[in-house]
UniProtKB/TrEMBL annotation:
<dbReference type="GO" id="GO:0003723">
    <property type="term" value="F:RNA binding"/>
</dbReference>
<dbReference type="InterPro" id="IPR041730">
    <property type="entry name" value="MJ0421-like_THUMP"/>
</dbReference>
<dbReference type="GO" id="GO:0005829">
    <property type="term" value="C:cytosol"/>
</dbReference>
<dbReference type="GO" id="GO:0052837">
    <property type="term" value="P:thiazole biosynthetic process"/>
</dbReference>
<dbReference type="InterPro" id="IPR004114">
    <property type="entry name" value="THUMP_dom"/>
</dbReference>
<dbReference type="GO" id="GO:0002937">
    <property type="term" value="P:tRNA 4-thiouridine biosynthesis"/>
</dbReference>
<dbReference type="Pfam" id="PF02926">
    <property type="entry name" value="THUMP"/>
</dbReference>
<keyword id="KW-0694">RNA-binding</keyword>
<protein>
    <submittedName>
        <fullName>THUMP domain protein</fullName>
    </submittedName>
</protein>
<feature type="domain" description="THUMP">
    <location>
        <begin position="59"/>
        <end position="162"/>
    </location>
</feature>
<dbReference type="InterPro" id="IPR050102">
    <property type="entry name" value="tRNA_sulfurtransferase_ThiI"/>
</dbReference>
């Protein structure tokens, strides 16, 4: 089983239908033989983790989007840290101040897998408040300019600002 430190090296998370994880992993390996690909990380079905090889992360994301039809959602990871809302707040400061300015609106959407002492809504509120303080941006839950995705898998969190 993969541990938290090993998980931190991956920079793309793919969501797929259950049972398609190995197919997605194989197709990505065909696109980029140097990529590191892990289907069903921590035994979570429907997920594939990727660390780009030959291509840049963003180029590989584009290649996957064009060529791997089984990849239902492709999430480029901007930050990886431990699964604690307060730590996430501290760790994302640099990334959010680069990507979100005071003229933009945002929303935080969290998905959790595993057992935690907090809910997805707790993460949305705590992380959203930190982003608001760091950037001066406003929260807009209906039509945000930017969505901050927080994917929590057991003790790890993977964050995309996009």
């Amino acid at each position: 089983m993969i541990n938290h430190d090993a998980l931190m090296q991956y920079n793309i998370l793919i969501k797929t239908s259950l049972g398609f994880e190995k197919i997605v992993a194989t197709r990505i390996q065909e696109l980029d033989p140097e990529a590191k690909v892990l289907p069903e990380p921590m035994n979570f079905k429907g997920l594939v983790l990727v660390k780009n090889g030959r291509f840049s992360r963003d180029e590989l994301v584009e290649q996957i989007a064009r060529n791997v039809v089984e990849a239902e959602k492709i999430i480029p990871i901007d930050k990886a840290t431990i699964a604690d809302p307060n730590v996430i707040c501290e760790e994302i400061r640099d990334v959010v101040t680069e990507k979100i300015d005071e003229k933009k609106s945002f929303a935080v959407k969290t998905t959790r897998r595993g057992k935690h002492g907090f809910t997805s809504i707790d993460v949305n509120v705590i992380v959203g408040d930190c982003i608001r303080k760091y950037t001066g941006a406003s929260v807009n839950l209906r039509y945000p300019d930017i969505i901050v995705y927080v994917e929590i898998k057991r003790s790890s969190s993977l964050i995309q600002i996009g």
